Amino acid sequence: MALQYLDFEKPIIELDQKIEELKTFNLSGITNVDDEIRNLETKRDNLIKDIFKNIGNWHITQLSRHPLRPYTLDYIELMTESFTELHGDRLFMDDKAVVGGFCFIKDDNYIQRVLIAGHQKGRNTKEKLYRNFGMPHPEGYRKAQRLFKLAEKYSIPIVILIDTPGAYPGVGAEERGQSEAIAKTIYTLLNVEVPVISIIIGEGGSGGALAFGVGNRVLMLEYSIYSVISPEGCASILYKDISKTEEAANSLKLTAKDLYSSKVIDGIIPEPLGGAHNNRALASNNVKMAIIENLESLKKYAGEALRNQRIKKFTGY
User: Fold this and answer.
1) CA torsion sign, 116 to 117 to 123 to 125?
2) Cα(303)–Cα(291) distance, rounded to whole angstroms?
3) Residue percentage of the chain with pLDDT more than 70
4) Residue 57: how many CB atoms within 10 A of its CB?
5) pLDDT band at 139, cuts 50/70/90?
6) What pairs with residue 218 in β-bridges?
7) Rounded-to-integer distance, Cα 47 and Cα 24, Å
8) Backbone φ/ψ region at 134: left (φ over 0), alpha (ψ -120 to 50), beta
9) Strand 217-221 vs strand 267-269: parallel, antiparallel, or unpaired?
10) What is the DSSP string of 185-231?
């Protein structure tokens, strides 16, 4: 995929262009420029480190929405084997904004069958419309409920990948019970007697994300966000001024670092230099290892104890 840059990443563009030009010359056999390429790559990496050292909440919000950031199906492809997708809520339709199915997570001597479910966005206009921009209808949440119960029936752990601006707010969705579907999903996840790991991989927006966020372990990728409202929505409602979006982002405390400090989440998964989109293989491996580590730590609980631990985590008693 072609590189795409956010506004605050523009200083990197010139170096990347020079590196690509030198690689083209090298491939054509005109001259050997390996040393110069390595020097420029080192210079670029140091520049990225400097830029990301003091990155702000609004910049992290932009990164969480990066058009090349890996989505749920990308992680499934890169870190699992034998994925079998299941469709439909058995009531109305198959919501393409939510995907889920059974697969295996493997690493060296480790193998575990899991149910993976999550939000799915699209990259081009056609895919975005097909996936409804990652905003589920009630049917998406009811499909997820069906899959969660199926996993519980066969004692299979549940892994959920969260990446949505929020649940779809359309009239049809409201008519078909959007709020009830979200509430029932939360209730279902709280009560299943299998391990549940929820991971915010991009945007964790509003109740659409919270519906999937009640796990025994809640983790966030380093440059993801998790908030009751978007910075734009907050600026419009509280400040009555969309130009104060960056100020709203800082006030919301929506980054992984903020939420880990306030104990809203249980851990932060590191991302590759410059964000998950710069090295999808490494990002997916980091997510996989976090899943394995947390599944292993939950082995001390079984059945009802898993349910009780989850309920106590979110209710305080």
Assistant:
1) positive
2) 19
3) 96
4) 22
5) very high
6) 198
7) 23
8) left
9) parallel
10) HHHHHHH-SS-EEEEEEEEEEHHHHHTT---SEEEEETT-EEESS-H
Q: For the stretch 260-282, what's the b/e string if a residue is b when 16 or more beta carbons lie within 10 angstroms of its beta carbon?
A: beeeebbebbebbebbbbbbbee
Cα angle vertex 215, ends 106, 225, to 5°? 95
Burial (Cβ within 10 Å: 0-12, 13-18, ≥19) of residue 205: buried
Phi, psi (degrees; rounded to nearest 5) at 7: -55, -45
CATH number of the domain located at residue range(s) 60-315 in this protein: 3.90.226.10
Q: How far apart are CA 96 and CA 126, in angstroms?
A: 13
SS (H, E, C) 91-121: CCCCCCCEEEEEEEEEECCEEEEEEEEEECC
CA-based radius of gyration for the chain? 21
Q: Judge whether 162 and 204 are in contact, CB under 8 Å.
A: yes
Token look-up 């809640």 returns 218
Pairing relation of β-strands 196-205 and 98-107?
unpaired
Q: Tell me the C-alpha distance between 84 and 115, whole Å.
A: 10
Q: What pTM value is reported for the model?
A: 0.91
Tokens of 110: 């480790």
Query: Domain extents for the chain?
Result: 7-54, 60-315
The first and second tokens of residue 166, run together, are 């929020």
For the stretch 177-199, pLDDT in tens is: 999 999 999 999 999 999 999 99
